Amino acid sequence: MPRVLKLQPHKSIEELKQLYRETKDPIERTRLQILWLLAKGYKVGEVSEVTGYRRGSIYRIVERYNQLGTDGLKDRRHQHHGPETLLSEIDQALLWQALQEPPIDGGLWNGPKVAEWMSDRLERRIHPQRGWEYLRSFEMRLKVPRPAHEKGDTTEQEQWKKKLKQKVQEVGQKYPGATVEVWAMDEHRLGLKPIYRRVWVQLGEQPIANVNWRYQWLWLYGFVNPNNGETYYWILPKVNVELFNRVLEDFAREFQLGEDKHIILTIDRAGWHTSSELKIPLGLHLEYLPPYSPELQPAERLWPLINEPIANRSFTSLEELEEILFERCQVLFTQQFVIKAITQYHWWPKIQV
After folding, report:
1. Is residue 245 domain-shared with residue 127, that is, in the same domain?
2. What percent of the residues of the chain are helix, what percent strand, and what percent coil, each to the nearest 5?
């Protein structure tokens, strides 16, 4: 029998949700997310998939929460109040100013480079660990930038988010009593050119990926409903308006679109999406993304999940690749909770489905 986790009523579900969204510390935030999801009734395995925490860790977090309340969630590494005082307030202000520009070598800031800056300032050798501690004390975190096209218009993007919600209301008013859903759709090119991903290996080992570079491609058409994590896929040899019409027709038939059910589908402005030859089925409403705004497309979040079983591998033919992709899509059909967690942007229209 699976172990049942019971939470003491220190906080309500809404209070846990509010704390989770407001907490800045990443460790405490994830722990609050775990408790919030458990309080909502999710299973330990589902919570583990979303947060990356092992079951044993989740049990210990619940145990500390039950004993100490939210005080038991604090990151114990923060018991030390910042780094050893090496820099005066003036020196810290100068370091903060230096961090706003690239380092002298033109690279990127890291702990050793901050320590080198401190060594020059204090005229004595500073251990690289001290540099990392000062970066943390400034509440700085190491993150990969989210790509955003330089031509993207942030004002237009914000207006589009409001327009999408208005579109939901308009369709609902025009078809009272009908079911209205909001989906997203995009295409993903895959082929015999290898995809590389980092993998866990023992210390001192160098992983090897046996690959054979060839430029042959196929396309995965992916649909997702961010409000419930439901997905739908087609694997095709190319992209064009004729195939896109077939995909839309099949999508409308699969989800029984018509007078009683309508889907608003967000897509980009690719040529085959905007062609005058496009045939839009009854019950389907296309909503085009602003130009240069792929970050607004939830379907983009599907591709890292799709790529997992084909990364660091070589395939003899597109048929072999297609078979792996087909199996992967079948698996993702069953992982709605995970897909919802990564595609339901906070601004996405929330519709109960």
Report:
1. no
2. 45, 10, 40
